[in-house]
Specification:
434 Repressor (Amino-terminal Domain); mainly alpha; elongated; 2 domains
Length: about 170
């Protein structure tokens, strides 16, 4: 891969592409149309909301005279980075959870995996909607439903969430 792109490892290739287009004063829409690509799709790629396919990457690289495969490699590095980030996240986002929920313990020393039932129970008994949403995101709705069922906790929120996920 070209040295100039080496510094972009882990960054979405669309963001890099957007910078490259701006550097060359190339407008996105006409460029997308010249590649026979939908401008909306191209825009989503340059915003980092959509991955770049190998076929499109090759078209762009040829048109911009970039080294072949550089955007594909950037996409692969980005995908690897995202997987690593998911694996690393061993705790819920502690910035979202209310500090008062765990007033009696050091939140940094909670074993989130082993103590999931107690955590879910506490959050669904005492937490607000943001707390419940974060715990549901972290553990997954099935694990939350299971833990709530085992602890016999019922609340309008849990009924709403279980109804919402079945639609």
């Amino acid at each position: 891969m070209v040295k100039q792109f080496e510094k972009y490892r882990g960054i979405h290739p669309g963001i890099v592409l957007d910078r490259e287009l701006k550097k060359r004063s190339i407008k996105q829409r006409p460029f997308a149309l010249s590649l026979e690509e939908h401008p909306q799709t191209f825009n989503a790629i340059t915003k980092g909301k959509r991955g770049i396919s190998t076929a499109l990457a090759l078209k762009i690289e040829r048109e911009l005279e970039l080294e072949e495969g550089s955007l594909v490699i950037l996409q692969a590095y980005y995908d690897i980075q995202k997987i690593k980030e998911k694996e690393i996240q061993k705790t819920p986002d502690l910035n979202i959870l209310s500090k008062a929920l765990f007033w009696d313990t050091d939140i940094q020393h909670i074993n989130w995996k082993r103590q999931y039932r107690a955590v879910i129970q506490r959050v669904f008994e005492r937490g607000n909607t943001n707390d419940k949403d974060e715990i549901s995101r972290f553990y997954g709705s099935e694990k939350v439903k299971q833990a709530l069922k085992e602890s016999n906790i019922r609340s309008p929120y849990t009924l709403y969430r279980s109804h919402k996920t079945t639609d």
